[in-house]
Amino acid sequence: MMKNKNLTLLLSGQLVSQTGDKFYMLALSMMVLETTGSPAKTGLVLFAGLLPVVGAGLFSGVVVDRVNKKTLLIATDLFRGFIVSFVAYQYIQGSLGLGTILTSQVLLGLNSAFFNPTIPSIIPGIVKKENLSKANAGTQFVSGISNILGPAAGGIMVAGTGYFIVFGLNALSFFISAGFESLLKIPSMTSGPRESLGRSLKKGYQFIYGDSRLMNILLMVFVIHFFVGCVEVAIPVIADLLPGKGAANMGAIQAAFGAGSVVMALALSYARINGRESFLLFSAVGMIGCVISLIGISRVLDPNVLFPMLLFGLAGSSIILAGTSFQTLIQNRTEPHMIGRVFGVVSSLGNFSIPFAMLVYGFLFEAFDLRRVMGFSGLLIILTATASFLSYGKREKLAEAKTRSGSPV
């Protein structure tokens, strides 16, 4: 693990705020369901926080590329802290209604649309190029830990202390994160020529669509997140099919998935994968395809939960390997003054494809046998990863040939 004060500060803030955010969302969902008795309203609250991230992410990258990134991080964290503080205040006053909750979710989502692409945009400015993959693995490690700790801590705290304390602690986590970010020392990053927001946005999309290798990477980003949405729907279905209690099976499978993510992220924090990111990205996505096919027949191969746990652990590891690889590839392939716009699109792709996959697979699992759906899906992912890898390789060789001849790439 490399030593880098700026990276440590950034990751520390992320760990605090992401963990707080996870148990806040769990508490908020439980509170809405408990007070309204409506799963539809609970879903609406979750959707209200997600929609702005998808929509605003398509243009938020322009702002990320034009403003001071450290200031943007601090401002968005402080604003999120004030929003959640207001929710906590309204709750303790007994006046927290659904309208306030939905408004706060929209505002939090808008903040996330600017915050999310800023983090990977900053990393190339605070670590050396050869350490990018390790730094990105660190962000994945923090995400994995928060995914494990957040829901567990949220459930315990809601039961033990009530909703107000959970809301208050999440607000505090944003202020603590802003404190860590205020200590960052980020060198000046090229911002490119000053021009209108519309022209900057147009140039960003021209840059993305004009680079076929980058388009291959973005396709993998969609596939990876789409698979995560599939897993979210598949876990409870598979857990219910296995012998024993469905809730216990689901907890074991989710724990294995999280453990696989954390172990791979930790391993990548020490490993050196420089120059192999493209191979590892497409290989990891291919492995995801293999795993998703095997998940469909896991209850046939093994009558208990151990084999599905192993497969979902492998799935978690593959997702982290793919995520670390695509993030590093994008950082290496993107000009500093364009990086916010590219990661804004990445954020929108991820936040759109997960719920979209959940919707699609929810219908598919009702209409068709799970084994056939998973088997076909896995095969489709493998074929997509293979075709994209071959296309990416051809484009790489063509770019190298043009570079040697002196022609523009």
Walk me through the structure.
With 409 residues, the protein is mostly helical. The protein folds into 2 domains: 1-128 and 148-181, Growth Hormone, Chain: A (Up-down Bundle), CATH 1.20.1250; 195-401, Growth Hormone, Chain: A (Up-down Bundle), CATH 1.20.1250. 85% of the residues lie in helices and 0% in strands. The protein is built from 13 helices and no strands. It has helices spanning 5-36, 39-66, 69-92, 98-126, 132-161, 163-182, 197-209, 212-241, 246-270, 277-301, 306-333, 339-367, 370-405. The longest helix has 36 residues, at 370-405. The radius of gyration is 21 Å and the shape is globular. It starts with a helix and ends with a helix. The model has no long low-confidence stretch (mean pLDDT 85).
SSE topology string: HHHHHHHHHHHHH
* Continuous helix count: 13
Number of strands: 0
Could you tell me the mean pLDDT?
85
Instruction: Detail the poorly predicted runs.
Output: none
Q: Approximately what portion of the residues adopt beta-strand conformation?
A: under 5%
| Separation of the first and last Cα atoms | 35 Å
The radius of gyration computed from the alpha-carbon positions, rounded to a whole number of angstroms, is 21 Å
- Kindly state the percentage of residues in helix: over 70%
CATH topology of the largest domain: Growth Hormone, Chain: A
Q: What is the general shape?
A: globular
The count of domains is 2
- Coarse structural class: mainly alpha
CATH level-two architecture of the largest domain: Up-down Bundle
